Amino acid sequence: MPPTGTTPLIALLGLFLLGTALHIHAEAVSGNARGQPSQRLSRRMPLSMSSILVLLLLFLGWSYDLQTQELVAHPIDWLIIKAKKQSDDWANQASASQNVAECVQEYQRRYQRHPPPGFDAWYRYATARNSVVIDDYDTMMEDLLPFWGISPAEIRLRTQQVISDPWNEVSEIIIRNGHAGLGPDFLPTHRWMLDGAINLVKDFSSYLPDMVVTFNLNDEPRVAVPYKDLQELRGLAIGTPKYLRQTARHSWSANRAATWHIPDDLGSTRPFEDHSRTNAFSAGAVACPPSSFAQRATSWDSSTLCTSCAAPHSHGVFLSNWTLSASPCHQPDLRNLHGFYLSPAAFKPSHQLLPIFSQSKVDGYADILYPSPWNYIDKIFYNATDEHPDPPFAEKASSLFWRGATSEGVSRQGTWKGMTRQRLVHLANNLTTVPTSRSPTLPVLLPNAQGKYTYQTLPHTNPITALNLSLDISIVDGIARAWDNDGAAQDAEFGFAPPTDFQDHWRHRYLMDVDGAGFSGRFLPFLQSKSLPFRAGIFRSWWDGRLTAWRHFVPVDVRLHGLFSTLAYFTGTPGPASGGEGDGAAVGKGVVLTEGNVEAGEEIAEAGREWAGKVLRKEDMEIYMFRLLLEWGRLTDDKRDEIGFVV
Ligand SMILES: *[C@@H]1O[C@H](CO)[C@@H](O)[C@H](O)[C@H]1NC(C)=O
Ligand SMILES: *[C@@H]1O[C@H](CO)[C@@H](O)[C@H](O)[C@H]1NC(C)=O
Ligand SMILES: *[C@@H]1O[C@H](CO)[C@@H](O)[C@H](O)[C@H]1NC(C)=O
Ligand SMILES: *[C@@H]1O[C@H](CO)[C@@H](O)[C@H](O)[C@H]1NC(C)=O
């Protein structure tokens, strides 16, 4: 850090290769014209000479880059343009088919199977509710794919295993004769979740076959299948072309209810192990290939920023690939950077492929994502009123706002220092950038007097003041989830804020969103507002495939090293401190006053709001759940290879 741009290097190399090619071509043409054999060309430009030239140019490019390190255009401009195209392309392919026949054809093309029985009813349900997403259910199918590798009877048996013991913290809803109901045993504390799930399916339950659906009651995901096993299951699932027969029977097997009965001898071994409050990283990293960085590096020294961990999904300090940024496989340092990995409050995972429906998961887990009842039954929701208005973007305060609890994980032996929420609060309020040989000061990408962008380091004391970014980020009330001395240690470190009304958020232009123990339930209301959400997190939900980072929200690496550079792009920079007093002068050197790209921020805020109003409505949650349960009905049907919907 700071990152050095490779673009000039690549451009130089590209020009050189192009020039060489043109030269050789010209030689060949003139050589042929003179009737000389073209073989002689290789002697005119020996390999050693061209490689020396390449090395020379590489060196020139490198030193040029090192000396100036200036960027003419801001990387975020480019990321925004790219995201716009990406999200347009996604939307076009997600809603291409115009009628049920085309939809079936598209389904068969994508997933090499017939759609499940009841697909026509689903299509009518979705189109009657103006669903924009008709064709692209790739993430759902990805979740379900490994289950094609085990038999329907085995899936049902594992279903009974996970609900047979309340210790498992899994509860079911039972679908019988077109109605959904609670199972016999459920934890009263989680009744809202099951009631929410029942509510979610009630409008279409008459189309569902008899079955049992098992829900994870914890925020943390549960199913971490080792890489090799998962590859094997996927191989079994896609390896057979038999599924696309000419015809299929459009009905469920008779007598399905009887196939779900609880066998007498379930065995006494528990399918889950309790790993609460211990480092959970390696439990999930088993899903990474053995050659991956995460599998090879069993530890990471947390006093060093792992730039090579961030590089694959970054452009400079900016996050450029949101999907990839969730993968633990190239990021062994994540083990110390998130509460879920450091010390999850409730973590009972299994390495066996178990049928568990979860509200969110981190990359590598094989839980099946479903729309969270938390959002569906409005546990938290967007409700701007006269008392709590949501003014136009330009009229909001130019500040980044966050309030929350320290609920990401349970801190023991200082693990709070790595948790994203605590690091965020520390960075915003208590940052000191004392340079050491291993960790220089925090570089921030800022414009200079020539209108170019350079990474500049902040003064050692009071760096935030120098940047003049308005940050309003606090833990509410006090410390939660801390054991031993960790509560007192955090009390000494952090300041606290009184609780605020959730609807007060809309006063701020920029809203910070980070994970809690699982996904953040607030993100959807943030998206629906006229404010711009900044999102840092590794948890992903059913809708993540529908959103595009930099188009609908602003992504931030969980390391938070790019947060100030990202914020400065939108808010502008203070310019040289004219008085030359105190620390302000240090950052002012070479920095010019910039207005900030307020319009770019407003455009993303609006695009996110509009898109959420199209694809993340409650109707969309129902449509997703309807299709998911038809797929689940088929997966658990003994005749699953013979049934389906064909036009
Ligand atoms: C992000 O990374 C994934 C996984 O490597 C890749 O498939 C995808 O194309 C990348 N997306 C972009 C926009 O580069
Ligand atoms: C939204 O807020 C208003 C004013 O506080 C309140 O009267 C109303 O009930 C709220 N809406 C819902 C759906 O709760
Ligand atoms: C950290 O910042 C907060 C908010 O400004 C303040 O209340 C707290 O005392 C600071 N902590 C330390 C150790 O300086
Ligand atoms: C810092 O920000 C405040 C409010 O956002 C503004 O009034 C002030 O002029 C800024 N200072 C500089 C040096 O730009």
TrEMBL record:
GO molecular function per UniProt: transferase activity
Keywords: Membrane, Transferase, Transmembrane, Transmembrane helix
Transmembrane segment boundaries: 6-24, 45-64
Residues annotated as domain Glycosyl transferase CAP10: 330-639
Origin superkingdom: Eukaryota
Keyword Heme: no
Keyword Transferase: yes
Alphabetized InterPro entries for the sequence: CAP10, O-Glucosyltr/Glycosyltrsf_90
Family the UniProt entry places it in: Belongs to the glycosyltransferase 90 family.
PANTHER family assigned: KDEL LYS-ASP-GLU-LEU CONTAINING - RELATED (PTHR12203), PROTEIN O-GLUCOSYLTRANSFERASE 1 (PTHR12203:SF35)
Annotated protein name in UniProt: Glycosyl transferase CAP10 domain-containing protein
Organism listed in the record: Alectoria fallacina
